[in-house]
Amino acid sequence: MFDLFTDYTLRTVALGAGILGIVSGVLGSFTVLRHQSLLGDAISHAALPGIVLAFLLTGSNEPLPLIVGAGVAGWLGTLLVRAIVRNTRIKNDGALGLVLSVFFGMGLMLLTYSQSRPDASQAGLDKFLFGQAAALLRNDVITIAILGGVAIVVVALFWKEFKLLSFDPEFGSVLGFRMGTIDVLLTTLVVIAIVIGLQTVGVVLMSAMVVAPGAAARQWTDRLGVMVCLSALFGALSGVTGALLSSTGARIPTGPMVVLSASAIVLLSLLFAPNRGLVWDKLRSRRVAISADPREQAGL
Amino acid sequence: MSEAQLEIQAIALVTAVACALPGAFLVLRRMALMTDAISHSILLGIVLAFFVVGSVGSPLLIVGAALMGIVTVVLVETLANTKRVGKDAAIGLVFPALFSIAVILIARFADDVHLDVDAVLLGELAFAPFERLAINGYDLGPRALWVMGVILVVNLAGLALFYKELKVATFDSALAAALGFSPVLVHYGLMGAVSVTAVGAFDAVGSVLVVALMIAPPATAYLLTDRLSRMIATSALIGAVTAIGGFWLAHWLDASIAGSMATTAGFIFGLAFLFARDRGLVALLRRRKRQRWEFAQEMLVVHLLHHEHGPDAEQENRVAHLQEGLRWEGEFTEEVVGRARRRGLVSLADGLLTLTDAGRDRARRSFAA
């Protein structure tokens, strides 16, 4: 545990995962409330062709061009999902599944195509697939912190608008807000939160990071402000815990450990959160059953 | 074409068709993302079965994986039924957790065995012909072809036997319950089929392509037809085209077959999305445009009828006045008047519009409606 203060690599990884947890926790609150939890899944898969193309075009492994490529592709993916849902009778789930699998397949095709050419070197791309938190460098953490910080500042600036969007978009448009634009802005922030996390937890598991902290925080409160703060806290907690746990033994990948920590927080919240906790529910219904017992009512 | 190429195409074809059959119902029942969840969490089933059996080749691995698919469905539904999280969040919580456990188990205990996370996710169809099914030393062909062939036959049989039940439960689950067959049973039967198909398919083509093959061809077919039977047949056909087209695309680019098949599936969907006869984007835009002109002409004749024989008809029914009376742009007015004249709804003399009999009729009808 004390390694956190002495071990440089571990500190970098824990810091990166923690910041990532905060950012995805904040934006995940909104996706959970808007029933768009699986949008994250689609965005993270859809990012792959962008990463590969950015790599092919710039030939660099620097985090920023790859993140930009991922962001553009993920963003295009969400626009396509919206276009499909609006113009066909295919529902949200079908559009998400379609976009995520086709984009990912395209990325895979581009990746293998680039690898099959003689001049190719593609080191660094695999870690976007499955995440390689252990390889996180100081530079990566700085990139994560800056982009994530910008995203959080934007959330703070547009707090009222995002609140309206999450709870009553019709009312928002009556008040004169451009809800369509606000929706695109929030989605863009979700895309940012996801692409900065790809390198740490990977394409497959990043989707969990925008669902789990928000879903856990939702159990504890009915207020948006409290929920977003709690969600950020849970996200940071899972990031740091996951990084620490994976450092306790050899060959424990960080990404999955972060996701499992988040899952554990969700489970505990579902069971024990005040008011909404399932355990209290069970106890309450038993108490009701006992008090409805006729013998007790008869004073026996 | 070499024998290996033929075999790869045969495997791809059988897999694509086997996936398209249950996929059609998933798209209709809005459960498309369940395939995503199942295709990831079966990895845990395979790992656990591997620990029990101790070998990678055992058919018990497929059983374990299929069971984990069902467990995933049950977990998602249990979680959603608590009403504490939405159904979408339930899916997004369950499968990453199961997948994480599988990845950790593999990394920790099975790293030296042939249980490769990359291979599971991405698949490599090009290697499928190397795994042969042999009985008494006699080579019967690629193992994947047999596995997917059996799964295809089972899916076809299930579809033929329970077509009516599936249809009613999909479109009207209340009626299904009233008729006496449980929608829950149909649901789990379908999920079982999805699970088994995904397990068989991911071995050959990887889990992400399973999602592409189960969703893209049925979603495309959904844009092309209104009949369930035709939709299923079209899905299977599109799946077959995807398989062969994807193979040759991969061959040409020297790239992953699974990725190329998914890309082909997306391309075919894109074509249908743009150009489908009734539901394509082009047809949709054209229809919207036509409706705009129709509506404008209707407004014009109603306006003319309203002021006809009135004291202000001389002034109101002038082309020049429409700009003010109906708030139309000049060019737009010209176009509408032109269209209405060509259709014989109005006649124009010295800038004054008069209704023809047909125009008057049309205006009255729009009042009646």
Give a quick set of tags describing it.
heterodimer, A: 300 residues, mainly alpha, ABC transporter involved in vitamin B12 uptake, BtuC, 15 helices, 0% strand, B: 369 residues, Arc Repressor Mutant, subunit A, two-stranded antiparallel ribbon, two-stranded antiparallel sheet, 77% helix, 5% strand, elongated
Structure characterization notes:
The complex is a heterodimer of chains A (300) and B (369). Chain A is built from 15 helices and no strands. Chain A has helices at 3-6, 8-33, 39-58, 63-87, 92-116, 126-130, 138-157, 159-167, 169-174, 179-209, 212-220, 224-247, 254-272, 278-291, 294-297. With 300 residues, chain A is mainly α. The mean pLDDT of chain A is 86. Helices cover 80% and strands 0% of the residues of chain A. Chain A has a single domain, classed as ABC transporter involved in vitamin B12 uptake, BtuC. With 369 residues, chain B is mainly α. Chain B has two domains: 3-279, Orthogonal Bundle (ABC transporter involved in vitamin B12 uptake, BtuC), CATH 1.10.3470.10; 286-368, Arc Repressor Mutant, subunit A (Orthogonal Bundle). Helices cover 77% and strands 5% of the residues of chain B. Chain B has helices spanning 3-28, 32-53, 60-81, 87-109, 117-122, 143-171, 173-179, 183-205, 207-224, 228-253, 257-275, 281-307, 313-316, 319-325, 330-342, 357-368; strands spanning 132-135, 138-142, 346-349, 352-355. The longest helix of chain B is centred in the middle third of the chain and has 29 residues, at 143-171. Chains A and B meet through helix 3, helix 5, helix 6, helix 10 and helix 11 of A and helix 2, helix 4, helix 5, helix 9 and helix 10 of B.
